[in-house]
Amino acid sequence: MSTPYAKLPGWVEYGLIPLINLAVAFLVAGLVVLLVGENPLEAAYHLINGAFGRGEYIGFTLYYATTFIFTGLAVAVAFHAGLFNIGGEGQAYVGGIGVALACLWLDQTMPWYVVFPLAIVGSAFFGALWAFLPGWLQAKRGSHIVITTIMFNFIASSLMVYLLTRVLKPLGSMAPQTRTFAEGGQLPKLDWLLSIFGLNIGTAPFNISFLLALAAAFAVWVLIWRTRLGYEMRTMGHSPSAARYAGISESRITVVAMMISGGLAGMMALNPIMGEQFRMQLDFVQGAGFVGIAVALMGRSHPGGIIPAAILFGVLYQGGAEIAFEMPSISRDMIVIIQGLVILFAGALENMFRPAITRAFSARGQRAAAVVQTKGA
Amino acid sequence: MDFFHVLVVLLESTIRVSVPLVFAALAGLFTERAGVFDIGLEGKMLGAAFAAGAAAAVTQSVWVGLGAAILVSVALSLVHGYASITQRGNQIVSGVAINFIVAGSTVILGEAWFRQGGRTPALAEGARFQTINFPDADMIREIPVLGPVYADLLSGHFLLTYLAFAMVPISWWILYRTRFGLRLRAVGENPGAVDTAGISVIWLRYRAVICCGILCGFAGAYLSLAMTAGFVKGMTAGKGYIALAALIFAKWRPLNIMFACLLFGFLDALAIRLQGTPLPLVGQVPVQLMQALPYILTVILLAGFIGKAIPPKAGGVPYVKER
Amino acid sequence: MNNIAIELRGIDKSFGLVHANRNINLRVRKGTIHGIIGENGAGKSTLMSILYGFYQADNGEILVDGKPVSIRDPNAAISVGIGMVHQHFMLVENFTVLENVMLGAEDSQILNKGIAKARQELKRLEKEYALEVNPDALIEELPVGLQQRVEILKALYRRADILILDEPTGVLTPAEADHLFRILGQLKAQGKTIILITHKLREIMAITDEVSVMRRGEMVATRTTRETSVEELAELMVGRRVLLRVEKGESNPGDVKLAVQGLTVKDSRGVTMVDNVSFDVRAGEIVGIAGVAGNGQSELLEAIAGIRKAASGTVLLNGRPVDVTGNADAAELRGRGLAHVPEDRHHVGLVLKFEECENAILGYHHDPRFANGMFLNIDAIRKDAEEKIAKYDIRPPNARLRTANFSGGNQQKVVLAREMERDPDVLIIGQPTRGVDVGAIEFIHKRIIEMRDQGKAVLLVSVELDEIRSLSDRILVMFAGRVVGERSPEATEGELGLLMAGVEGRKEAAE
């Protein structure tokens, strides 16, 4: 066994390197801003101001962050078991079915605190179902989970369009969406939470599902590091041969991990459907599944890192809207670029700066616990 | 002969729709056979389409547009190659990242440069491809059966269309009849065998990735210079993923790729045609089902229910000399 | 002229802390078959990888035909006439023989132009060296023996004058091996120089002209084969070290706790790795399996432990059968009183990224002591880990520290503590002191003896002959998948070395 990289102290591993990756991503994004003839510093100002300038803005930022916490957790859980779940987008979309069903059924007769738990179960159930299929195919038939989850994203899209235009749409309406929910299908906002800090929530749809997201983050932490199942998942993710030695069933873990992952992705649907739009519309997911990948990568698959990373992307989304408003050359698509750059530098190129950083550290006279790099690339 | 007429129209639009799929799937073929997994076909096609539309609008030359498409696509391929081959990074992550970067960049740059809401200006005659009509097509069309086949199915397509289908045997020839192709296929199965034979694994994989870029360039150029007169935001609309599905469905073989792409293109054309028309027995088939069929078929294949799809053995795994 | 085909001077190579090759000097005469013998980990493969350009030596020189050469990559090696037949074939399975041979030497971009010529050349080589293979056969359809021929043909096709064969007979039947030797003899007659790497003394004595012995990264001796003997070579190979003899009393064997009957295990290629092996291990005794690595001991352990499927045979644990040919479940076996210290602690016995206390429960995470329903009882786990750390003197005594940060010896203690403190009935151990410092070795040996004295049945596999002789009450020697002899620990090194190297001693029924 040869590891080409020396061991670096924890704070470098989990703090410095991700920060450097992030910084480079922003640097490149700044170049794109320059390329369209705008001032990157001005853009940066609008970004920060747009995300934090007013209570309402903070509300929006946290509203977006809620979604990304769910999808980030989804990807992270699968990562721990060694699986790359790109299907969060489709799983979240299908999760919306569960939410819509609960709301359409009970919104006029029950208060939100009865509908909400049912919607949670529904969203998790449908999301888990959509992830179960690729998981089972990988475990039992050896089908590569990355490819199948991509395919299932597209199948989900078609399925949802069909449901929204044929099945769940109220008769006589043209718009591909469900009817608007009554009060029972609307989640209360967290205006009281913000006012504790002296902030006015304004029109921001920052709602109670944020608290659910935090609870989910905690639950994921407990699951991964404090339960037997989490232990088995981590073992398999680190070393399938050790897992076999320990008597852990690879196929069982694959399926279960995917289902939990899908369930978390599905729960994301609660935020836009019951928290902002009060109905299920086409493409309410809007790429959150893929943002989840970036969030999980940046947060190193740990809830403690995912929450800040999700908030960071919330800042990007909300601040990005502000940039788009103030600087017409830069639309919201800039956020997509930054997202891509973050995924690139924090994901595929994560080791690009390691050699330089390692050299900087061993130059400080550390004991050479380094392993010589074999001649390769 | 109304049915026949319908069939010809259907096949004609099948061919039209399949062209970008064929280019992109062949692009994927080269890179995946060499062991580099690429889900960034979508991004490369989109970037190429944008570059083509932008360059053609500015220079009023379709050839400059085509050149720009290929350049941009190759550049994106090299980024993916750098991340996958040299940095030995996760190839899926790299592909996803590139798709995002391109999706955002095309809109931002398009808006900044042309201010038309993310599209490039509509292209004039000289700045885009024209259809090519075979001699005497109008006359020959009158002949029953063979006439429409000659006049509508074979004639009247863009240059790139003929090129796309020509690329199928050409790709086959490159892969199976040249030294480069032999080595490329070897490095995707057993890079150790290539290394011990004294061939550079890295340079070989980079060349494969460049081939992928060139073909994706053609795919993108077709979209904005032929099929449509200019770039429209998000115009690839998932075609890159359908091409990927076709590649897998075709079990990574050139001739199969052509048929798979035609099949998926046919499903697309059929979906539009069938919209609103009930079929015997089944009734109305939801158009969404038709749209999802390529993906469903690929999943069924991957599940091993219609034969086995065995990918290149060394696919997706960076080469490290592990002793 | 110069009659030295290859000379190595002062070759030195380290991988981090591992000194794989130390100051190697070697001279191989032209037109001879030169054997290089040594146990696994002696450094033979590293040396050959340097010769073939996979690695660059840290120090030293290589001279081919008297001239210094720089071998930076396989291309350079090929260009100076060195060809290699790898232990794990470097063949593209879904290509034909012809395609594999041509790879890298296709002669022109258009394949067809070169194919006719290549086919002719291949035929010529096949005839000249009696290496007949159907050029259009797919590699994956060929039996292993023929695949190896393709490997050889590849090297000859590239005009190799010096052929290196790395453990060529590991995957061959005895008949195929004999045929290979005839081919090697033919090659030698044609003036080729051959370097044969092997751990099998029989082969060395059968066909080599000279033999060099490697041990622990050093070249310890070179002999003319005619003038030496298997005994001398065996002794050189196994070496004399300071014997760490552990104090131990007489064993008092009780009931049979582990019974292995007719166990046969094949690997993924269908090659038989364990061949109809039978033996018993009783309570209160240590049965040691001696042998050079790669003779089936690993597969034997894995089959008994339930992590590898056996082809046939039975295993009885405490009298009850284990489903070794079907769905043996490692977790179930643990429940029935089997503990397993695997050979590979880095990838199998431990998860290096885990904290020490997390590794202390690997395989036992369902134990009610460590788990309340679905939750892990972290406090109990940590406390238990701390107790084990104290008892086994694991340093640093930090149950929260990542296991990768412990030294080899302490890592091994983590594994041992975990498996031994379960109070198992049967303990199977592979390579207990590999990569472990001397101080820890003594500790570990004492613990193993303690297990025996407490009435456990212990099965010990080790490539360290000293360890086997020091700890075992009975010694079984494995070679080529079979138990070739049983001896008492009083047997001499030489005698055991011979058995380990496949030289038949007094024939015995290995029951």
UniProtKB/TrEMBL annotation, chain A:
GO terms for cellular component: plasma membrane. It holds the Pfam family BPD_transp_2. Keywords: Cell membrane, Membrane, Transmembrane, Transmembrane helix. Its main location: membrane. It is found in: Cell membrane. InterPro entries: ABC_transp_permease. One of its GO terms (molecular function) is transmembrane transporter activity. The chain crosses the membrane at residues 12-37, 57-79, 113-133, 145-164, 204-224, 253-274, 280-299, 306-324, 330-349. PANTHER family: ABC TRANSPORTER, PERMEASE PROTEIN (PTHR47089), GUANOSINE ABC TRANSPORTER PERMEASE PROTEIN NUPP (PTHR47089:SF1). This is ABC transporter permease.
From TrEMBL, chain B:
One of its GO terms (cellular component) is plasma membrane. The keyword Cell division does not apply. It comes from the Bacteria. It is found in: Cell membrane. It holds the Pfam family BPD_transp_2. It is a multi-pass membrane protein. InterPro entries: ABC_transp_permease. GO terms for molecular function: transmembrane transporter activity. Signal peptide: none annotated. Keywords: Cell membrane, Membrane, Transmembrane, Transmembrane helix. The chain crosses the membrane at residues 48-80, 92-114, 154-175, 206-225, 231-250, 257-276, 288-306. This is ABC transporter permease.
Automatic annotation (TrEMBL), chain C:
It is a peripheral membrane protein. It is found in: Cell membrane. CDD domains: ABC_Carb_Monos_I, ABC_Carb_Monos_II. PROSITE patterns: ABC_TRANSPORTER_1, ABC_TRANSPORTER_2. Residues 6-241, 258-505 form the ABC transporter domain. Gene3D superfamilies: P-loop containing nucleotide triphosphate hydrolases. InterPro entries: AAA+_ATPase, ABC_carbohydrate_import_ATPase, ABC_transporter-like_ATP-bd, ABC_transporter-like_CS, P-loop_NTPase. Its main location: membrane. One of its GO terms (molecular function) is ATP hydrolysis activity. Keywords: ATP-binding, Cell membrane, Membrane, Nucleotide-binding, Repeat, Sugar transport, Translocase, Transport. It holds the Pfam family ABC_tran. Belongs to the ABC transporter superfamily. PANTHER family: CARBOHYDRATE TRANSPORT ATP-BINDING PROTEIN MG119-RELATED, GUANOSINE IMPORT ATP-BINDING PROTEIN NUPO. This is ATP-binding cassette domain-containing protein. It comes from Rhizobium meliloti.
